[in-house]
Amino acid sequence: MKWWQLSLIGIGCTIGTGYFLGSVIGIHLTGSSIVISFALAAAGTLIVFLSLAKMTASDPQEGSFCYYAGKAFGGWAALSCGWSYWCSNILIMGSQLTAISLLSKFWFENIPLWVFSAIYAALAIIVVLAGAKGFNKMENIFAVVKTAAITMFIILALLVLFGGISTESTYKPFQESFLHDGFKGLWASLIYAFYAFGGIEVIGLMAMQLKKKEEAAKAGTVMLIGLAIVYIISLLLACSLVGTHGFHTNESPFVTALEKTPLGFFPHVFNAAVIIAGFSTLCAALFAVTNLLVTLAKDKDAPQLFAKKLKYKDLPLASMLLAAVGLLASIITALLLPGKIYEYITTAAGLLLLYNWLFILASAWKNEDYKIGNKVVSVIGAVLLLAGISGTAVEAEVRPGLYASGGAIVLILLIGIWVKRKKSQNTEHA
Questions:
Q1: What is the predicted pLDDT for the residue at 387?
Q2: At what angle do helices 216-241 and 3-14 cross, to 10 degrees?
Q3: Which residue in 348, 12, 400, 125 sits closest to 117, CA to CA?
Q4: CA 157 remoteness from chain centre
Q5: Residue-wise burial string across 233-270, b where 16 or more C-beta atoms lie within 10 A, e elsewhere
Q6: Which of 80, 377, 379, 417 would suit a FRET pair with 132, their CA atoms being 20 to 30 Å apart?
Q7: Is 0.70 surpassed by the pTM of this model?
């Protein structure tokens, strides 16, 4: 694989409802200054990825960030890293599932959220059951749809902004919306900006397929800079067309931005594109957790039951069943908490990702021979990640996600203790 191909795969795996829908929560928190949050998140994400790429170039390993954590701090770190990533992907599945279900109510208001969740969960399982080849074909199609949707919005929004398309909106760009809740809102919105960049781990895991492993840094840098530019331009355009309080948390900000134009087709087409994007990320997360659990089992960091595969398309049935339980939990939660569920799950998933990214920075610091410049950059990255994590504590709306992620970390520790005891018992009996 060439570096630019890895960049394209990274873009396809990264763009999801965190950008298409989650960004609207950030806009509610901080207004049009959400673009600052995205710029800071892009910088922090780039620092994390370059740290991962440096380790990949020095010591290419299939286990990627989990292997490097174990190399730096021991087996407990590899186990914790692997399980926290598994849990974050379970929550990402719940986040995407809830988001596309909310967006589907755009057409069918009276159908309960959990019904859509059940339908999309079943479809995602069918896609993954198609095997790796079928999954890759579907993801390629999804990536084209995502890119086309963003390009369409940017072109249409520019035409509206410069008078090429008429609009009923009388909103004046950025008035009374920039930092409308002060720095507290900007701080709290960081987690949603970081979440929109979640996916760099996929590039780290796939870097082993590069012809030149040292080009991993180039692939990630081009991908992240490209994404940051597209994200910031599109959000600037959206905030230029609609006031902060004109956005709705159950609707993509890009749909809202063009609602008052004669483009009657756009909300329907774009909403469908966003649903496809979210479904794509849901399938990718389901595929990831299914295969990650097999790797954890092979490394004896999970019960050996999950390492077994069926002859049918080499399917890890036990691993997929556990992932399906995670999907079921999301459906039940959507049934019980239909109002704020997307915000809670997205916050928790974003926090677990940032915990993992801190592990990557710490592992690179320990594994690599860092000069003073590298250390300064690494500290800046850690400060940005910690700002994203701590920001969830200052805003009541997103604080439940902090509690959920804390609960997941406790669960990971309990699993780690159990696995460690099992390994000790097996060693003693040997």
A1: 93
A2: 40
A3: 125
A4: 26
A5: bbbbbbbbbbbbebbebebbbbbbbbbbbebeebbeeb
A6: 80
A7: yes
pLDDT under 70 in the chain at which residues?
A: 1, 12-13, 17, 62-63, 131-140, 166-177, 179, 181, 202, 204-209, 214, 310-314, 334-335, 337-342, 397-398, 416, 419-420, 423-424, 426-430
**SS3 label, residue 31:** strand
Place of tokens 């520019």: 158
Q: Residue 131: which region, alpha, beta or left (left: phi > 0; alpha: psi -120 to 50)? A: left
C-alpha distances in Å from residue 209, one per residue of 5, 15, 62, 215? 10, 22, 9, 11
Rounded-to-5 percentages of helix, strand, coil across the chain? 80, 0, 20
Helix residue spans in 59-112 (DSSP H): 64-73, 75-104
370 Cβ neighbours under 8 A, 6+ residues apart: 364, 378
Residue 405 has a pLDDT of 79
CA–CA dist 50, 91 (Å, integer)? 25
CA dihedral 421, 426, 427, 429 (to 10 degrees): 130
For residue 298 the two structure tokens come to 């092979």
Whether 281 and 92 have beta carbons less than 8 Å apart is answered as: yes
Cα–Cα distance measured from residue 416 to residue 409, given in angstroms and rounded to the nearest whole number: 10
- Entry field: residues in the chain: 430
Instruction: Provide the pLDDT for residue 388.
Output: 92
Q: Contact 224/46 with Cβ under 8 angstroms? A: yes
Q: What's the distance, CA 303 to chain centroid?
A: 27
The answer to whether 138 and 130 are in contact (CB under 8 A) is yes
* Contact between 67 and 399 (Cβ < 8 Å): no
- In angstroms, the CA 179 to CA 61 distance is 44
Rounded Cα distance between 253 and 102, Å, is 14
199 by Cβ neighbours in 10 Å (0-12 / 13-18 / 19+) ranks as buried
Q: At 291, which amino acid appears? A: N
Calpha distance 295→63 (Å, rounded): 8
Question: In terms of Cα–Cα distance, which of 422, 409, 389, 334 is closest to 81?
Answer: 409
